[in-house]
Write a structure and sequence with these properties.
Elements lengths: L1 E7 L6 E5 L2 H16 L5 E5 L7 E5 L3 E8 L23
Antiparallel strand pairs: 1-2, 1-5, 3-4
Amino acid sequence: MYTIDLILKLSPIPLSVQRKEEDDADSVYQTIINAMKAPTPQLLKLTCEKQPDKKIAVFSDQISAVIVSEKSGTSPTGRTAGFLSVGSGDSES
């Protein structure tokens, strides 16, 4: 499963959709990149293959970044790779 995350301007929470195939994820990525390069804002309508009822619509001029990543079954905590979680537990020196 491939996840396409959209990072929006002035929003700390990314929007994401999933694709089963790498080629499909690359196609969505290229569509988003082309819309971001366009001289006028475009409305992008995206759906998710993992959650078929999930629909996203966003104007291309509000996107600041797009990330494509492969979700593997090796992450036991369910966190996205690349993010660090720091605990506040006591540690002895």
